[in-house]
Write a structure and sequence with these properties.
Distance between the termini: 37 Å
Helix content: 25-40%
Number of helices: 3
Largest sheet: 2 strands, antiparallel
Shape: globular
Number of strands: 2
Radius of gyration: 14 Å
Strand content: 15-25%
């Protein structure tokens, strides 16, 4: 996930605290590009990680206004 991070595609990534896996938030134009990013990850290629792509809609909370 280092190369996608250098390219500005990997926004956040890391392991779950209970060591059951991990997650990455990858910025892509579409699901196909996301799959390519994951399939090219050396840890996925080497069989260390398995990947699963889940499209995600990020809520822009600012559109609901500010609570004080």
């Amino acid at each position: 996930m280092h190369q996608p991070w250098q390219q500005g595609k990997n926004l956040h990534a890391g392991p779950f605290m209970d060591d059951t896996g991990g997650a990455a938030v990858v910025l892509c134009e579409d699901e196909q590009e996301a799959r390519l990013v994951m399939e090219r990850d050396p840890a996925v290629i080497g069989g260390i990680f398995v990947s699963e792509v889940q499209p995600w809609y990020m809520v822009v909370w600012e559109r609901f206004g500010q609570n004080v």
